[in-house]
């Protein structure tokens, strides 16, 4: 099973989602990566505020490297989680067929928060990152349980 977390910049939310989900699953069986729609920060480490909040919960995301979503990600990954509706729309716009589009989900739908979004914390203070961490952490609990129950 291969899971891709997507946000806009791939430096705040999706690196957290990658690190958090990795901390909850058997990473020898489940591959988790992240990517962004925009290319502003390609090659850079996550935002220091994301690195710090993850560190507070014992998760090290400092060695992740920002990359842009590419169409062939639809071929490689089984599930693509978007952090907000704009990210969702951006990725759906790149889908080549129904199969591609069906792989894309809003991450908070995993916890029954239908159509809710993980807010973009880029222009927030540190507490915005704590809030985002908690939302993603809850969603990843549910995703991890669902993945554990899936047959290989
Ligand atoms: P992210 O946050 O999508 O959660 O990584 C952002 C990071 C950078 C920018 C926007 C959002 N930016 O405009 O540079």
Automatic annotation (TrEMBL):
GO molecular function annotation: protein tyrosine phosphatase activity
UniProt domain Phosphotyrosine protein phosphatase I: residue ranges: 1-146
Superkingdom field: Bacteria
UniProt xrefs under SUPFAM superfamilies: Phosphotyrosine protein phosphatases I
EC id: 3.1.3.48
Transmembrane segments: none
Hydrolase is among the record's keywords: yes
InterPro entries: LMW_PTPase, Ptyr_pPase, Ptyr_pPase_sf, Tyr_phospatase_low_mol_wt
The keyword Transcription regulation belongs to this UniProt entry's keyword annotation: no
Active-site residues annotated for this sequence: 7, 13, 120
Keywords of the record: Hydrolase, Protein phosphatase
PANTHER family associated with the record: LOW MOLECULAR WEIGHT PHOSPHOTYROSINE PROTEIN PHOSPHATASE (PTHR11717:SF7), LOW MOLECULAR WEIGHT PROTEIN TYROSINE PHOSPHATASE (PTHR11717)
Family listed: Belongs to the low molecular weight phosphotyrosine protein phosphatase family.
Name of the protein in its database record: protein-tyrosine-phosphatase
Highest classification ranks of the organism: Bacteria, Pseudomonadati, Bacteroidota, Flavobacteriia, Flavobacteriales
């Amino acid at each position: 099973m291969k899971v891709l977390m997507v946000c806009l910049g791939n430096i705040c939310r999706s690196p957290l989602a990658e690190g958090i989900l990795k901390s909850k699953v058997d990473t020898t069986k489940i591959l988790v990566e992240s990517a962004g729609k925009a290319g502003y920060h390609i090659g850079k480490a996550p935002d220091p505020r994301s690195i710090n909040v993850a560190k507070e919960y014992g998760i090290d995301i400092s060695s992740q490297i920002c990359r842009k979503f590419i169409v062939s990600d639809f071929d490689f990954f089984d599930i693509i989680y978007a952090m907000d509706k704009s990210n969702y729309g951006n990725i759906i716009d790149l889908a080549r067929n129904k199969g591609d589009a069906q792989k894309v989900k809003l991450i908070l739908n995993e916890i029954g928060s239908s159509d809710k979004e993980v807010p973009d914390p880029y222009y927030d203070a540190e507490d915005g990152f704590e809030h985002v961490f908690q939302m993603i952490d809850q969603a990843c609990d549910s995703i991890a349980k669902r993945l554990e129950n899936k047959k290989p």
